[in-house]
Amino acid sequence: MADTGDNVNLSRARICIDFGTALSKASICLDPTLPLEVGVKPLSIGAVSRAQHGLLTPSVLFVDAGRIFFGPLALEYAQRGAAQGRDPLLSFKTVLGAKDANVILAQKMRPSVDPTGTLTYRDALVLYLAYLDQLIREAISVTAGMPPGASEVRRRYTSPAWRMGSGPDPVFEAIFNEAAAISQRLGRLFLSTEGISIAQCKDALDKARQLPGNGRLETGVFEPHAAAAASMAFSTSPTNFVLVFDIGAGTTDVAAFEFDERSNPPALSEIKEARQCSGLAGDEIDRILIELYFRKRGGDQSQTEEQRVLRMFKLNARELKQQLFAHGKIILRTGWNTTTIKLSDLTEDPQFVEYKSALGRIIAASLAPVVHRAETVGAQVIDVVLAGGGSHLPFLPDLVRNAAGHSPRSVPLRVSPLSPTSKLYEGVDPSLGGAFPQIAMSVGGALVEMMPA
Ligand SMILES: Nc1ncnc2c1ncn2[C@@H]1O[C@H](COP(=O)(O)OP(=O)(O)OP(=O)(O)O)[C@@H](O)[C@H]1O
Ligand SMILES: [Mg+2]
Description:
Nucleotidyltransferase, domain 5; 42% helix
């Protein structure tokens, strides 16, 4: 079967959306039996939304002057709105991961996010997914080799909760169906720089509730399972044991898998004792950094100007943290105030020291059952795969090795960030390889065959 052209059979195709706390990603798998280079592609939704990175688009929504903005534009407006005490909606992930999602979804958004008091979290989620659908459609239309109909294939989403093997979740199925109707109704308006009026959004939301579309939702995929699938698919020297440590913005997910190639197709089974989900992720470092900045800066945080500075710093904290780790220092100027933060200020901060030890304890607790199982079957090596944006944190590999507290006679660990060994990304942009630990969940989620419940 050809990989391009009009006669491609898309019956096995699916798109996987990784709706991250900080960044959304999406990949398409045309057919899991095709070679990786033609079978699976990350979609350049960040290029379509004009974000910093071609494959990553910020998961943000902002309400301004009766209009709703999404993605990078929302961030831009939020920077301007900081002076008026306005916040963007930065994290939907808490909603997706919540035990009782329905209760949170039904709540109205905070007035600092939606001063019109119109939208519930569910409305925001539906609108954001409709926006994402438009980004995906546009990205597919500009990706070489995409067969006609590729935008209409089934959809999956990665989930921090365990929902595999059970088919689509009815709550999210309804949300995807309404988002599909809104995406169709408002179409490319989502891609305009003008934003969309709240009245138009509200009207589209009401109509979508009465007459939902077809969101084609197939299933949720457990995030670490998706990461492990990507790791195994792209590895040139696969092992039988993989511990995935996905440190994102909102959550750190840990899970371990045993790969058994004696069965056909080879089976990926989970070592359930290793599974953990923790809030100790990138945003927690940002929080510590924000506190550190305000301690160093001094000033009265109850003052209006200080509130504005705080809002601005919060909006830029991810970027500032990345600069601090990359360059060892950041210098912040606001009016007459200049504050310098050195990397050692952060790494010696008692809260950060405790953060690192807590992460170390999490790693140790997950490693123990994997090492035990690997020793039992006489495995040669355990892969510890670092995924998510936090995999760039320079202290992480040593933290894993130290947490293992390994006896020299035990099974050796191979610790490394998830990386593609194929040429998958070269055609897009050579610099995109560095984003692999972040896009791997959508790639793996699109590729993976579902694990039995
Ligand atoms: N070079 C870097 N150094 C340090 N942190 C980084 C770097 N690059 C990205 N990050 C951090 O990684 C996080 C984003 O990673 P990722 O895209 O995996 O998160 P997410 O999928 O949106 O979040 P989650 O999975 O928790 O919902 C942010 O906290 C960001 O600041
Ligand atoms: Mg993530």
